[in-house]
Each structure stands twice: as structure tokens, then as C-alpha cells.
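Hi W., the alpha-D-galactopyranose complex you wanted:
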Amino acid sequence: MTASHTALQDAAQLFAELTGDRPEGIWSSAGRANLIGEHTDYNEGFVLPFAIQYRTYAAARIRQDGVLRVASTFAPGAVELPVAELVSTFGGSAGAAVASRAVPEWAAYPLGVAWAALTAAGRSEADVPGVDIAIASDVPVGAGLSSSAAIEGSVAAALNDLWRLDLAPLDLAKAGRRAENEAVGAPTGIMDQVSSIMGRADAATFLDCRTLETRSVDLGLEREGLVLLAIDTRVEHAHASGGYRDRRAACERGAAALGVPSLRDVTGADLDRARDLLDDVTFRRVRHIVTENQRVLDTVAALAAAGPRAIGELLVASHASMRDDFEISVPELDTAVEAALEAGAIGARMTGGGFGGSAVALVEASAVDAVADAAVRAFADRGYTAPHAFTVLPSEGARRDS
Ligand code: GLA
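Structure:
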């Protein structure tokens, strides 16, 4: 039995405990890892993430009393909110429902998605019935692999069907981001939701975060006998907290000082002028975004021209830029990347928001154990808590499972 099969059953079982009934269906969406393109999404730049085989499942069924009820294996107890109160609960200032404790934070993800999806579809609260939703997941939490986007994607897919909202996958991703930004109050970009919902097997999703155009990019890992290994440092990251907000603010400051709407509009040729205009820290934040955007484009080109073995240096350069210019790495992530490279990985970099979470390494299938062991040894040498290393398989995004 695969791990994801268990999470699906957990969702069905939790649903049965909640309602004494069977769900009408079970929907799921994937966790994600980012191959390259970090912190570029909210700068209207480019990203190249992929959905992974770990998934979150939402077992759901319509109920007749107009109440939304959500339960999750993440937290004890169910949370109820009348559909008629979605707009008044989440339509105010960002994160207010959570800050005022009207809704526990974990429940703001699924309930916020209900609000955002309903609004996106232009439907009114009176138009749709209540729903029971039970959520279970095997996406590692706190590993920087977007367990939250997987929740959003699974619930969005469920409500899209049950409420007949007729939203396209990209609209579901937007609803997920809106829930995260406005209901939960975390100022993230749209990469995670697009990746979770729109992923394909053995492919990454190239996303232009300005136009929101997506393209599935063949990774060719299977063909080439390569594997992506996640090394979870088990250092906890906290999105809504300081570091992410600070970086976002620095990027906005840089764009304003350079007189452009977003850092998407700055190119390598502008960096000399940027160095003159900006203080050192802001300049390095800007340089990371500008060079990272170019590395994403170069990665897509290298994959097409020469296959996955050709992207190692780009991954390594991306990590160096995050470590030195954007300053979002931590010693554990640097150790994971260095150990992986010393043990023969083709490339490696931290993935996700930073300040902890996971690194990803591109390795020969035959070298997976050697690279994982090297990371474990390097952590032990430095007295760090042992990391978890596991392969991440580029997988399909949101779907109905039953
Ligand atoms: C988090 C956010 C994303 C993105 C990454 C950094 O995962 O949710 O929107 O900004 O960090 O690339």
C-alpha cells in the first residue's frame, strides 16, 4: 500500500467519524518542490516548480443546512461556519478572522478557499449548499513542501465540483492564493498553488507570474536515470513571519527606487545603475531576483536543449544567490547542499521560502543512498538533528480520486 493510499483512507475515515456517512467524493492536490525560481513569484517573475507524489485529500459531501464544516487530521475538533457568513468573516482586512480568533488558523485555509472560490465564480452565498469536508494528508508538514497549497488545492477542487462553480485550474490556484493572502494573512505569491494544482508527471510547471501563463516542461528524469532527492533539514520555517515579509518589502522598495512596477522589469543590464541607487542590502535582494529570473529561463532552455544533466550549475548558482544575496538560507540548508554536491549530486539548492525546510538535489538514481547518507553524516558531524532524505517524484496536480 502506498503512503498516499493511506492518507486517502484517513480522509474517508475522518469523514465517517464526522458525519456517520460516506463522502460523495474524495479530491486531492499535491505538495510541491521548486526546481528553481525562488521569491520571484511575487516579483512577477518566473518559476519552475513541480508537484510531488505526497498529497492532501479532501473527502466531502453536501449538507442541507447551509453550514460548512471542516475537520482535519492536523487538529482536533471540527470548525463550523454558515456559508452565509463567509463574506463577513473573510472579506475584511487580511488575516483579521485569524487574528481575532474567529477562525482557528488551520481552518482559515479550507474556509478561506470556500470564500475565495465562491467569490471568484461570481456566485452568492445564498446560491450554494453547506458542505462537510474532512482533510488528511501525507505531505510532510514544516518541510517547505507546501502542505498548505495542497490543502487549498484539494478543497478548491472539491468545492468546484460540489458547488458546480465551473472554475478553471488557474482560477482554483488564484482562489488558493487569495485564501492564503487574505483569509490566513500570509503574503505569499502564487507559485505553490499553481504547482500543486497544475502539476504533471515527470514534468515541472513553468509559470510566468506576470501573465500567469503556464507551460508544462518535460524533465526527462526517468529517461535519464535521474532522481530528485529532498533533504528536509527539519528546521521549521514560518511563512507569515518576519523573514518572508522583509524580503518582500525589500523587493518592493528596490522596484520603487528603480522606478519600475516590479523587479520583473529589471534586467542584468540595469544592475550597475541599481548598485549606485540602492543601499547594499536592497541591491543584493534585487540582484537575487534579477539573476534568478534569468536562471529560470536558462534552466528551461537547458532542459530542452540538453536534458536534466545540463542544469546542475544553475541549481548551484541559485543556492549561492539565496545564501549570499537574498540571505534566506540557514547553515543546515547549506550543509545539505554542500554534502549532496560532495557526494556527487549533479546540482542542489534549497527550495521554497527559506529559513529552514528542504533542499533538493538532482542525483543519479544509483547515487541516491550515497547522497542521503552523506547528508546524514554531515549533519551528525555538526551536531544538527538528523535530516530526512526522500525522493520527490514530479507528479500530477489536483484530481478527483473517488
Ligand atoms: C513560499 C511562498 C511562494 C514563494 C516561495 C519562495 O513557498 O508560498 O509563493 O514566494 O515561498 O519562492
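Residues 38-39, 41-42, 188-189, 191-192, 352-353 surround alpha-D-galactopyranose (CB under 6 Å).

W.
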